[in-house]
Amino acid sequence: MDHVRLPLAVVVAAAAFVAPARADETSTADKLRILYSNRFTFTDDGLPLMTVEVMSGQTAVTLSAPGGLVILPDGDGGSATTVPGAAPITVRADDATGAEVREWTVVARLAPDDTTGISAATDTWRSRGFDPSGFEVGTLFAVDGEVIDSREHLVTVAPVGAGKGAARAKQLGAEHDVMTTVHRELVRRPRGSIVAVAGEATVTNSAVLWFRPARAGETITVRDVPTGTGGSQLATGLEDRRYWGAVYVTLGSDGTLTAVNAVAEDKLLAGLVPSEIFPDAPDAALEAQAIAARTELLEKIGRRNLTEPYLLCSTQQCQVYAGAGKEHPRTTRAVARTRGIVMLRDGGGLVDARYSASAGGRTEDNDATWGGAADPSLRGRADTADKKLAERFAVIDDHNLDEFLAAEPDRFWSGSSRWGKKHFRWSIAISVADLSAYVARVYPAVGTITALEVVRRTRSGRVQAVRIAGRKGTVVAEGDLHIRRLLGGLKSTLFAVAAVGRAGAPTSFTFRGAGFGHGVGMDQVGAIGMAAAGKSHAEILASYYRGSHLHRLY
What we know:
- With 554 residues, the protein is of the alpha+beta class.
- Among the domains are: 11-98 and 190-333, no CATH class; 100-188, Alpha-Beta Plaits.
- The protein is built from 14 helices and 31 strands.
- Strands 2-7-6-17-20-21-4-3 form an 8-stranded antiparallel β-sheet. Strands 1-16-15-8-5-18-19 form a 7-stranded antiparallel β-sheet, with no helix packed on it.
- Helix 5 (283-300) crosses helix 6.
- It is globular.
């Protein structure tokens, strides 16, 4: 990573100065470096201060607050410029260039203190003609004597330019019969000036500007935030959104503007939890969701977005966050009642607290969905209190799939409540014309679809690979999310498919399925079903995350 300290020259015209705010840990001259690191700080109230993407890929960002904004080039502790009134401030970038990013193929993941394993993996790949390099991801922090260590040491080989890593990793994985992933290394941060204009006032700073409401207790409004897919440009619409805390505008790795919300964990969760679960669900389910979301926030630090100036994205890849004004009193109370409580593995470290809307009665193993090592806390099972039913559907395959899809909803946690019945079972017919068009977006050489054949299923019955035959060619599609999107946005891959019409020339395909989402970890409507049956949040979480326990960090 580029560790050159960037200049923080500030040019101000026609604006009122205020006294510098009290300094905090993130107010040093190399604050910009911290934005790209895996560090986080704590507020005066003892809560983690999180940085969450608002939107990226922008040419301009417009902000406002009812009582005006304070512009802080260095964040709290530096010089400040107050722009009074509710008039918007427009932010742009001058002379911007993108970051330099390298993509490495990850060939081994080990504990950072496993020197023997690291040395052995390095020697193995060196003997194969590569020059291995090591990276440490994750983070290490301590709160009230409790040490949380989520670090991993990555052994990597064969660096290539940005955008080429996935193909290289796939090639090396096939050649050497190993599971590979991609690690993105930030070689040099993006460069340029950030310019804020409010009327006749102009504030310019190298690489980043911070904004806070001039009046305490107010929020910052960011105009025209893309909706539908979080902060990305591939959105279904635009809307103005409000945010607690501070907002900083900086350069993303592509050299365009990125707006980021620096917000206390409780405010973040208060806005996040209602978008993840029904706010009118039983209290125990809301509390379980708050704890899972908090654990997931902390567990992901230092593992994602390593080439971007924030800890967390705002899309479904991280956790959906739409800012202030989305809170609900019941979910806010659940966040407050569970303050600081997280899930720890019995062997140490934070649980990877994945969850999905509905597993349809059978949760999934993490490695079956995403590859990598099997996580003891993320083992799939039949989601029911009926032991005989659990035994019958311990494994779901072509022999008992129809029986599983016909099972009564009330016998499973995810189908036993009014919240879960909508997605517990589903059916959809897709015409050959539509399905062919969906597939053609990714595989244009296939042509009109003539047959679909499930090649491989997981132990939970989910489709891992499907053969798609067309008049021009055949392809085998693999991967949960890829298959769902490829076939027109199916709710899940736990489905049976049948052709309608003449063999070799069908008119449509019928999909009968279960659940909504990947099915790994906590089933959210299953948690609601358990809560409605009188289970506590501790019992719910222990059921979905085996080998874990609750611990109050702060």
